[in-house]
């Protein structure tokens, strides 16, 4: 072997398999935090549907188990007018700030507008 690549010790004569350290308590805490994120996602989706109407979709990304913010929550919401959208967005964030579940699991909300006549399935694109 070269000096840049360390050589591996021979394991042909050894029957020991490599072991990984695993703390079941940390794994349980991690699982609980993941379920907490999912529960908050569903709560935010229900709230967004009440504020914006039918056709809302939600997805999580960039989740962290600790810190000031736990994840990015992308909300695809019906969009027809910027003034109305900003009003509904302000109502949603005010309601989310008073919700006990969403206060406990803080998200960064990312709103994307979709055309309401497509039932919330297509992304809004500017007309050329």
- In terms of structural class, how would the helical and strand content be classed? alpha+beta
What topology, given as strand order, has the largest sheet? 1-2-3
Q: Give the termini separation.
A: 62 Å
List unreliable stretches of 5+ residues.
Answer: 119-128
Instruction: Classify the oligomer.
Output: single chain
Helix count equals 3
How would the global form be characterised? elongated
Helix content bin: 25-40%
The helix/strand series, from N terminus to C terminus, equals HEEHHE
Instruction: Specify the biggest β-sheet.
Output: 3 strands, mixed
Computed over alpha carbons, the radius of gyration is 23 Å
Q: How many β-strand runs?
A: 3
Mean of all residue-level pLDDT scores: 79
Strand content of the residues, in percent?
Answer: 15-25%
Describe this protein with a few key phrases.
40% helix; three-stranded mixed sheet; single chain; disordered C terminus
């Amino acid at each position: 072997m070269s000096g840049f690549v360390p050589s591996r010790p021979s394991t042909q004569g050894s029957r020991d398999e490599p072991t990984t350290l695993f703390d079941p308590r940390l794994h349980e805490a991690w699982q609980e935090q993941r379920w907490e994120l999912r529960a908050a996602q569903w709560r935010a989706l229900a709230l967004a549907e009440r504020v914006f109407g039918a056709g809302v979709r939600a997805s999580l990304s960039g989740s962290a188990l600790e810190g000031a913010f736990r994840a990015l929550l992308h909300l695809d919401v019906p969009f027809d007018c910027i003034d109305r959208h900003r009003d509904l967005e302000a109502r949603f964030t005010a309601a989310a700030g008073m919700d006990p579940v969403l206060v406990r699991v803080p998200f960064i909300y990312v709103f994307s507008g979709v055309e309401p006549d497509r039932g919330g399935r297509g992304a809004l694109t500017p007309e050329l």
